[in-house]
Amino acid sequence: xxxxxxxxxxxxxxxxxxxxxxxxxxxxxxxxxxxxxxxxxxxxxxxxxxxxxxxxxxxxxxxxxxxxxxxxxxxxxxxxxxxxxxxxxxxxxxxxxxxxxxxxxxxxxxxxxxxxxxxxxxxxxxxxxxxxxxxxxxxxxxxxxxxxxxxxxxxxxxxxxxxxxxxxxxxxxxxxxxxxxxxxxxxxxxxxxxxxxxxxxxxxxxxxxxxxxxxxxxxxxxxxxxxxxxxxxxxxxxxxxxxxxxxxxxxxxxxxxxxxxxxxxxxxxxxxxxxxxxxxxxxxxxxxxxxxxxxxxxxxxxxxxxxxxxxxxxxxxxxxxxxxxxxxxxxxxxxxxxxxxxxxxxxxxxxxxxxxxxxxxxxxxxxxxxxxxxxxxxxxxxxxxxxxxxxxxxxxxxxxxxxxxxxxxxxxxxxxxxxxxxxxxxxxxxxxxxxxxxxxxxxxxxxxxxxxxxxxxxxxxxxxxxxxxxxxxxxxxxxxxxxxxxxxxxxxxxxxxxxxxxxxxxxxxxxxxxxxxxxxxxxxxxxxxxxxxxxxxxxxxxxxxxxxxxxxxxxxxxxxxxxxxxxxxxxxxxxxxxxxxxxxxxxxxxxxxxxxxxxxxxxxxxxxxxxxxxxxxxxx
Length: 620
Hints:
Elements: H1 11-14, H2 19-36, E1 50-57, H3 67-75, H4 77-86, E2 91-96, E3 104-109, H5 119-137, E4 140-145, H6 159-167, H7 176-186, E5 193-198, E6 209-216, E7 224-230, H8 232-235, E8 247-253, H9 257-265, E9 285-289, E10 295-299, E11 304-309, E12 322-325, E13 331-337, E14 342-348, E15 351-357, E16 362-365, E17 382-388, E18 394-399, E19 405-409, E20 418-421, E21 424-430, E22 433-440, E23 443-450, E24 458-463, E25 472-475, E26 481-482, E27 485-493, E28 496-501, E29 506-511, E30 516-521, E31 540-544, E32 550-555, E33 558-564, E34 569-574, E35 580-585, E36 589-594, E37 599-605
């Protein structure tokens, strides 16, 4: 990392970052420095005595405007107004006496919901910049959080200070109570500068200046940060018509996603967790999720499946993997992934086998007349479920490639598969109960609380305008359930989707005329990093935009940005149990991304030559 001259006083902190992160912060703080100009005294607190003439300045009272500027006003009034609008007027700068204790600059950061996420990158760069400025001015930098009830001011400027700055989060924006508390806290303090960093505040502090930070988000357009520096007169509350009531504005492009996430999550870590066991052989297809969404399985070749845990953060190691292999003469019918086991139903001719890991293979059913259609090679297997009955007999449920629902009493002596239903689009578990979605043209019928043969089924019909099978998505982690099933999104017409969930007690249309619908998910109350704009009480339709680099959440006619990527994404799906995106980048990597944390959790190599890799969350 190359630092510019004069950076010795503050470069110690930059050197703690990884090289690419330090380079980004150094470049960003240099861009931000153009808003402030040379380091000088401004916004002095308390009453000061004049101490003569201190050159010229572009910010002062118009009583000290240079005579040459008044001459321009008399002869060229339009040019005078242009200079006023562009901040080009020159004033006599007044020197002021300062006390020995008046040698500090105070930064107060807004750590509310609107400033979480990308704006924190600007916070961090401004922190570096003001370390540099105070070093040049031979001052002390003191900083704190506007929402901090303890009203603490810190002089830390080390690794712990950066982590404290990034980890400080508050659920509410700045209020008048916060401003009043800080006004009382600072009334006996002497300082040279006081800066309020973040969003608009309901009021200003005495002799304070504001640094406004907003994230510009537009669909299929590069996201950026807009940093504005209102003039001293605008910050002090002068009327809008004042010639000096303007702002200096700087637009900062956001860094690559990897750099931004590492800066916000763990900027000082030099080791990135990767699953060691999966690096030896590339994955060739997606297999299954566990019922809690914490584990996933992949194909490695035609007759081997590996399973691993999804780490809770990018700093966690996924750990070891479990491998289940079977003879090439057998074809996979259905797959189950639980906390401790991998289970597969395999078909070879007229025989059906249950293969488990850890465990052994056993013959499940004698040759029978009931047809069983295994999955075509290269496609995700159908789900397999085991449910106990009142007599503690284990039941086995599976859906084959033809959409038939198959049932077997595993412990019966004459165990055979029985066909229970047809045209099944979706089969999954919600708690300890199974549910399924079935196509009964032109209606989509959902059966909930499915257990034994004699167990009553809760049935709910959803009409459509389609003549062919609709796409349907469920999410067990979304708020509320309907008739014993989780929140559901289904295709009502060619360009119309409907969402049904107990939290809204209704269905509502979501237009998806562009982009690819990849699933449904609700945003929990902790979804601060999305800016707080998504209506958290209602599930959202998740759409991959046509550009392939952005994902949006759709609610009614509104669209909200969920994530953006520097690389194009494909084969995207939503984890049916957790708010995680699963997709393949054009670089050839399989990625798991946590929506609420805005964090990449897992990255795996994909066999680039395999065209059979397809998503299980697609059109069913």
